[in-house]
Write a structure and sequence with these properties.
alpha/beta, six-stranded parallel sheet, globular, 9 helices, Rossmann fold
């Protein structure tokens, strides 16, 4: 298989994931260029990360990528995607697609008019451990899954995972949400461990998603969970025959006898990279990316997004349907709004629902 050639717009923290993945897996990916805000920034960025950095989107398109990853601030995501779509360049959008209903509807209209492929770079469902949990649900180990309490990811990532695990029927969703600010001692951030005892604040959002088929999604998250040493993340999936709580699985067998086991995460002894996830001696997940470079779970999932986008461009088959991409963003926008107002609300039928 020939290399997947992609371009990148943006120089922020998230964009560095895509650069690192291209360098980790050069036999699979080729980063044709990185578009910066101007020539001066391009010269600096190129020297710092060893990439072909250019000063405009137009210059990036001249490097002939198969698709472009838009990894820009939320405020300019829609206009950046519009430029790519109008140019006929397939786009992979870092989350979210838009910040409000009006922007999302405009993007939908442009997407439908141009017909240029656009996919959402949603990676959380591709985490090795989440893929393993989904495999257990698909075999019916828990029976009918009806409830998911999720405290592992924020906003659109969270609502995407709720849909991934619950697989609810389409239709109107009732939402109740609120946010609470509470003090916390800062123990970690992007710049590393903090031990000075500084007291900061965390904003925790709680939400109930009542789906039309009676399934219930419970969302509970604060951003400090990503890096704090004193906040943990958890996931609980309930079904008629058992539950999954993080890596622990409890279920009733064919003779209705209670059983208990754990997901076994297999890591490379040298790099610590997840190689596989097993359960009861059976392999549920295998890492498709051979690499001698350490890759965290999020990087494995993002690499899988890039791989799948390459297949989408070459085959025309989307890996993340429009109804999911736009629907997850729309649901996240509802979540933000209701949580800010400590309110209840319902979703409305949108154009992408027909897709």
């Amino acid at each position: 298989m020939k290399k997947i050639r992609f371009g990148l717009i943006g120089t922020g923290y998230r964009s560095l994931y895509f650069i690192r993945i291209a360098k980790c897996l050069p036999e699979i990916f080729e980063l044709t260029g990185v578009a910066c805000r101007n020539e001066a920034r391009a010269k600096e960025h190129g020297a710092l990360y060893g990439v072909n950095a250019v000063g405009s989107i137009e210059a990036l398109l001249e490097t002939k990528p198969e698709f472009v990853v838009s990894c820009v601030p939320r405020a300019i995501m829609e206009q950046t995607l519009e430029k790519l779509l109008e140019a006929g360049m397939p786009a992979l959008s870092e989350t979210p697609l838009a910040m409000d209903d009006a922007s999302l509807m405009r993007l939908w209209a442009i997407h439908q008019r141009t017909g240029t492929p656009l996919q959402l770079a949603e990676q959380y469902f591709l985490w090795p451990t989440h893929q393993a949990r989904r495999a257990l649900l698909d075999r019916g180990l828990l029976g009918d899954v009806h409830n998911c309490w999720l405290s592992v990811a924020h906003d659109y990532h969270g609502v995407s995972l709720l849909r991934f695990f619950l697989q609810p029927q389409p239709g109107e969703i009732a939402i109740r949400a609120r946010s609470v600010n509470t003090p916390i001692i800062v123990t970690g951030a992007r710049d590393g461990i903090h031990t000075d005892g500084e007291v900061g604040f965390e904003n925790r959002t709680f939400a109930h998603f009542d789906y039309p088929d009676g399934k219930l999604g419970l969302y509970d998250f604060c951003g400090t969970q990503y890096r704090s040493a004193t906040r943990t993340s958890h996931l609980r999936i309930l079904g008629t025959r058992g539950e999954i709580f993080d890596d622990e699985v409890l279920w009733t067998d064919a003779q209705n006898r209670p059983q208990r086991a754990r997901l076994e995460v297999r890591k490379d002894l040298k790099t610590g990279t997840i190689r596989a996830v097993d359960f009861e001696g059976e392999r549920l997940y295998t890492n498709p990316f051979p690499s001698d470079v350490p890759m965290i779970e999020d990087e494995i999932a993002i690499a899988d997004v890039l791989r799948r986008m390459g297949e989408t461009v070459r085959t025309g088959r989307p890996f993340y349907p429009d109804a999911y991409a736009y629907g997850d963003t729309y649901l996240a926008i509802r979540l933000w709004d209701l949580a800010a107002r400590d309110a209840m609300g319902k979703t409305e039928r949108m154009p992408w629902d027909e897709a």
